[in-house]
Amino acid sequence: MQDVTDLPFLRTMAAFGGADVYVTEYFRVHIHSRIEPYILRSITENPTDRPIIAQMIGQDADELVRTALELKKHPIAGVDLNLGCPAPVVYRKNAGGGLLRKPDQIDTLLGRLREACGELPFTVKTRIGFESEDEFESLLHIFKKHAIDLLTIHGRTVKERYQTPVHDDWVRRAVEQMPCPVIANGNVVNCQTGLAYLKCTQAAGLMIGRGAIRNPWIFEQIRASLSDAPSPMVTKRMVLNYIERLFEETAAVISDFVENKHVQKMKKYLVYIVQGYDAGFEHDIRRVKTKAEFFAICRHYLDSHDPAPDLPSENSKLFCGFSQFL
After folding, report:
1. Do both 64 and 155 map to the same domain?
2. In contact, 192 and 164? CB cutoff 8 Å
3. Among 264, 218, 214, which residue's Cα sits nearest to residue 243?
4. Does 10 fall in a domain?
5. Quick check: is 221 in a domain?
6. Helix H segments across the chain?
7. In terms of domains, do 52 and 128 share one?
């Protein structure tokens, strides 16, 4: 997730078990672009001891090929093309999910990037359409043409953003038709929703973004359930320790540390973490300005051994529609 899943976040995830494979924030690619040093550090200083895939976003075939060839010089597990970002500032430039309106251009991009990557895995993340799920059948036809190594599907359209249930039937159809593994994404908010998504789609795995910000133990919980091992129970104090660790990791990479700016950055994480708690937690944390205020609020709501809420509120704008998997 852009501006969230950076190097300090990867360090924090690794400390709590972490994922099997990681994907960088996206490298913005255009005629004047250069590989952003800060994102590149997630690759060159990868702290997870797990493979990491370099993600690109853009629409110019020549520039995407140029960037992919540069990224191949670094220790990456693959190159990924983002066809799923639903942010208006991105899709209005015909990048990310905006490219789904231009299937012929996608066809060209996939062919060029498949050739440029050579033996290095080339992966794609997509949504199921821009306006309508009915667009996905023709998109699948294009994906099948290009020998991509992995297809990750966020089971919503671009226009649906994060506000609906996912169309798991289209993910299942992709699993049945694609010659490569398919990864399911969207609405994995706890272990139960992840397992249900896997079961109904028969996907090869899960990609988890927002759910992992809220609960970094989610990967360990799913792995434990799949192997019939005990699943870790998360307490509020464990969440408090996670927030403290994340605060320290993000502060450690700032050369010109300014307290109130760092508190503002932490709020980007907290708006996900607080979902499912007392509504006062989000209200209060949005209004803090200093480190002391920030941690006073966190301790007020989290300094106990009570179980942490397993689910966010489905009325949240950040987590919607997941009851389809409960």
Report:
1. yes
2. no
3. 214
4. no
5. no
6. 7-15, 37-44, 61-71, 88-91, 103-117, 136-145, 168-177, 191-201, 210-214, 218-226, 236-252, 259-273, 279-285, 291-302
7. yes
Domain of residue 251: give its range: 236-302
| Cβ atoms < 10 Å from Cβ of 219 | 21
The C-alpha atoms of residue 283 and residue 162 are separated, in whole angstroms, by 21
Contacts (Cβ under 8 Å, ≥6 apart) of 252:
8
| Location of structure tokens 């895995």 | 121
Q: What is the DSSP letter of 231?
A: P
Order of strands across the sheet that contains 150-154: 22-28, 52-57, 79-83, 122-127, 150-154, 182-185, 205-207
147, part of any domain: yes
**Do the Cβ atoms of 150 and 181 come closer than 8 Å?**
yes
Alpha-carbon separation of residue 192 from 6, 72, 228 (angstroms)? 27, 37, 14
Cβ count near 165 (within 10 Å)? 16
How far is the C-alpha of 85 from the C-alpha of 107, rounded, in Å? 18
User: Global pTM?
Assistant: 0.96
| Residue 212 included in any domain | no
pLDDT tens track of the chain, all 326 residues?
Answer: 888 889 999 999 999 999 999 999 999 999 999 999 999 999 999 999 999 999 999 999 999 999 999 999 999 999 999 999 999 999 999 999 999 999 999 999 999 999 999 999 999 999 999 999 999 999 999 999 999 999 999 999 999 999 999 999 999 999 999 999 999 999 999 999 999 999 999 999 999 999 999 999 999 999 999 999 998 899 999 999 999 999 999 998 877 778 888 999 999 999 999 999 999 999 999 999 999 999 999 999 999 999 999 999 988 889 999 999 99
